[in-house]
Write a structure and sequence with these properties.
heterodimer; A: 183 residues; mainly alpha; 8 helices; globular; B: alpha/beta; 9-stranded mixed β-sheet; 11 strands
Chain lengths: 183, 271
């Protein structure tokens, strides 16, 4: 994973195109939104789509975060990995659990059975998607499988988007992760 | 509200604008688009212009406008104007300095559905040329005489606050050239592009500008004042979409924006 300056200009709130100005109403929507804004007609649907997929349906929030973080690490996306490591820690994951998800050589955390399944599922979505759904069976109903596949697929898309454009992790996130000194 | 209803109600302008290109043989001090001979042309392809134009009447548009850059730097412009006027009346904005007798002879067959709006800022050559370049006023006035002699419809577009006395002299000049007062439009310098910091430049926010769909090589914009360039960088604050077609989609997007926009009492028009 390589950190560098973004490869495109991130749109400032003052330059936000008309169709997507509402996403900038309270300042920058973050690097993903600021990077998408130069193509407003796509951002207009992209942001609500990502919002809906990440907001989730019936799958437990903790399982969803495992998928996002594990997959982002497997895909080598620094931006998504750091951002979701921070989110995971703030939502109650232990540092050991987060390390275990990011570093495949770290000792496995004491995952529950469903959690262990979605870890394997995330690994498969990165390396061998044909085998991924089978790893969720039995235990997950069709609608949960669809939700997890949708989440993983959207995460892979964001991983590619953020990595290709070298999007920078938010400064406050890096501070909380101890990667920058306190303000 | 459909786009046609938006145009009928006045919330969306009835003229569809095209930026034919961004380069220019001049480099005016207040240019919105930072145009100059050396900038990339960024041509809007002829086929796209004509495709959009052919869909325009069904969307409710009743005229076209072409601006730039200097549109007459395009060799194919007379043909584009001919095709556009066969669909709807068309206005082209120009500095006129390239309008040679030969080029004018190519415009004459187009007829009275074509209007040519020529930029002229002062009756005083020195005052005009201070912002537009040495020798520009003389070339422009000579071209206006040729256009009028050829029977073409000419308008004058004046940019900036030139004061009452100079305005009176300018009006006397255009009347002598056979151009009626109703064909003389005056607008302020807008504080965008090279106009930022120019004396008397006025701010042009979305709410100050009538919604007029404007298609450029960079996408579709809220107004002809939208696709401005500052220090070589395109302003995106009045960008509607990067997609340049289909027209129905662009018109629906701008109509939806116009429906939710409160207009300020000040309203700036480019024509």
């Amino acid at each position: 994973m390589v950190s560098e300056s973004p490869r495109v200009d991130l749109v400032d709130p003052g330059d936000a195109p008309l169709l997507v100005r509402r996403f900038f109403a309270e300042g920058s929507p973050g690097p993903l939104g600021a990077a998408a804004a130069p193509v407003p007609e796509v951002m207009l649907d992209f942001m609500p789509f990502i919002g809906a997929v990440y907001a989730g349906g019936s799958v437990d929030e903790r399982l969803r975060e495992i998928v996002i973080l594990r997959l982002s690490a497997r895909q080598g996306c620094l931006y998504c990995t750091e951002t979701h490591a921070d989110i995971a820690l703030r939502s109650g994951f232990s540092p050991t659990e987060v390390r275990s998800l990011i570093d495949s050589t770290a000792p496995l955390a004491g995952w529950s059975k469903p959690e262990a399944k979605v870890v394997q599922f995330a690994d498969a979505m990165s390396a061998d998607p044909n085998s991924a759904v089978g790893l969720l069976r039995p235990g997950f109903a069709d609608h949960e499988v669809v939700e997890l596949v949708m989440l993983a697929s959207a995460t892979i898309m964001l991983n590619r988007f953020a990595t290709a454009l070298a999007l920078p992790t938010a400064t406050d996130c890096k501070r909380r992760l101890g990667k920058l000194p306190p303000a | 509200m459909t786009p046609a209803e938006a145009i009928q109600s006045g919330s969306l302008g009835s003229r569809l604008w095209f930026y034919s290109n961004y380069h220019c043989n001049l480099a005016c001090a207040y240019c919105l688009t930072d145009s100059a001979p050396s900038v990339p042309p960024r041509l809007l392809p002829r086929d796209e212009i004509l495709e959009l134009a052919s869909d325009a009447p069904a969307q409710g548009f009743n005229s076209f406008g072409i601006t730039g850059g200097e549109p007459f730097l395009r060799d194919d412009l007379p043909g584009i104007l001919q095709a556009l006027t066969e669909i709807l009346p068309t206005l082209v904005l120009t500095n006129a300095t390239l309008l040679s007798p030969h080029l004018i002879s190519r415009l004459v067959p187009i007829g009275d559905r074509l209007s040519i709006q020529v930029s002229l800022d002062s009756a005083d050559e020195e005052a005009n040329d201070s912002a537009r370049g040495t020798g520009t006023a003389a070339n422009t006035i000579a071209a206006i005489r040729r256009l009028r002699a050829a029977g073409l419809h000419v308008r004058i577009g004046t940019t900036g606050d030139i004061g009452d006395a100079d305005m009176e002299r300018l009006c006397m000049l255009h009347r002598r050239l056979g151009i009626a007062d109703t064909d003389h439009v005056v607008r302020p310098v807008v504080s965008r592009g090279r106009g930022v910091g120019f004396r008397g430049a006025v701010t042009a926010r979305m709410s100050d500008l009538p919604a007029e769909l404007t298609v450029t090589a960079d996408g579709a914009f809220w107004s002809p004042f939208g696709p401005t360039v500052a220090m070589g960088r395109l302003d995106t604050d009045l960008l509607v979409s990067r997609a340049r077609r289909p027209l129905g989609r662009l018109t629906a997007l701008i109509a939806s924006l116009a429906a939710g926009t409160e207009r300020s009492p000040q309203s700036l028009g480019i024509t």
